[in-house]
Amino acid sequence: MKITVIVCTFNRCQMLPAMLDSVAASKLPPSVDWEVLVVDNNSSDQTQGAVERFRRQYPGRFRYVFEPKPGKTYALNTGIHEAGGDVLAFIDDDVIVEPTWLRNLTLSLNDGEWGGSGGRTLPEQSFSPPPWLPREGHYGLAPLAVFDLGSDPCELTEPPFGNNMAFRKAMFEKHGGFRLDLGPRAGSRDPQKSEDSEFGHRLLDAGERLRYEPSAVVYHAVPPGRVMKKYFLGWWFDKARADIRAFGIPRDAKWRVGGIPLSLFRRLAVWSLRWMATVQSSRRFSCKIKVWVLGGEIFECYRLSRNKMGVVTAR
User: Fold this and answer.
1) What b/e readout covers 85-121, taking b as 16+ CB neighbours within 10 angstroms?
2) Is 130 exposed, middle or buried (0-12, 13-18, 19+ CB in 10 A)?
3) What is the DSSP annotation of 223-283?
4) What is the Cα–Cα distance from 120 to 217, expressed in whole angstroms?
5) Maximum C-alpha span of the chain
6) Is the separation of the CB atoms in 298 and 264 below 8 Å?
7) b/e string for 168-196 if b means 16 or more Cβ within 10 A?
């Protein structure tokens, strides 16, 4: 088995070396051939120089590719095309991986039983959650890029997060690459999320099996500006818009107003009342998040209907 670790980056030359150092310290059996492919998505800083140092220090281990088209999915698809591995692992440029991360994430992909895998993404070890932050459910810390389904391996029924996932390259050859209308893009006003979840759902809907591997651990950076209510609300609003764009307006919505399912307005009213009536801080904020999510769904449904793009149906 040959593994390619794909890292897409944009103007983060200051953070990149710490992440690459942690990947360079990965512990794999001598029989495993592996490489790290850094895809520079049109950076204007010293990204290439930062990668060049690792190319010199670890000959044959690190490679650099420049993708001039802005947009993470362009960089991801370029990485897939340029990768020499049979298994492709994906991480963000602002994480630190444990030495056993790569081995544990890819171990189950040796044969054809699993199409892909997702690891456990935790916040950086110095992070302390504020009291207003909802912790219930698996996705309470999703705006901080945290994906934690616990300590037991299992089969995934939801896609893994793009900061800690791996797929057999055959999955891309069979099901296509990442959608170019989704994901982060510098300067864009479009919702900049869901490229990873859309691809994962595409595989699951096709009957491919994905595995959760909790021993494949990465620690994601948590900038202070993200531990704010305003950031969380904006993230969830954007995520709701991106999911409507990725999966479409639900087909089962029989009654619509201006192209918007009437059920969304009903749920918005319910969660608005709960938000106003709840006293406990984290529960109150959780209700407020639901209101922002529904607002994002309504906004994007209206926009798609106006542009006659809402013909795509949800799962």
Assistant:
1) bbbbbbbbbbbbbbeebbbbbbbbbeeeebbbbbbbb
2) exposed
3) -GGGSSHHHHHHHHHHHHHHHHHHH-B-TT---EETTEEHHHHHHHHHHHHHHHH--SHHH
4) 5
5) 62
6) yes
7) bbebbeeeebbbebbbbbeeeebbbbbbb
What lies within 8 Å, CB to CB, of 274 at 6+ separation is 287, 290
Q: Are 147 and 161 in contact (CB under 8 A)?
A: yes
3, containing H or E segment: strand 2-9
Tokens 């170019």, located at residue: 180
| DSSP H helix total and E strand total for the chain | 9, 11
What's at 250, amino acid-wise?
P
Residue 11 burial (C-beta neighbours within 10 Å; 0-12, 13-18, 19+): middle
Distance CA 117, CA 115 (A): 7
Name the DSSP letter for residue 160.
P
**C-alpha to C-alpha distances, 97 to 21, 24, 188, 199, 267, nearest whole angstrom:** 9, 10, 30, 23, 40
Per-residue pLDDT 10s for the chain (315 aa) are 899 999 999 999 999 999 999 999 999 999 999 999 999 999 999 999 999 999 999 999 999 999 999 999 999 999 999 999 999 999 999 999 999 999 999 999 988 899 999 999 999 989 999 999 987 777 889 999 999 999 999 999 999 999 999 999 999 999 999 999 999 888 777 777 899 999 999 999 999 999 999 999 999 999 999 999 999 999 999 999 999 999 988 766 667 777 788 899 999 999 999 999 999 999 999 999 999 999 999 999 988 888 765 443 333
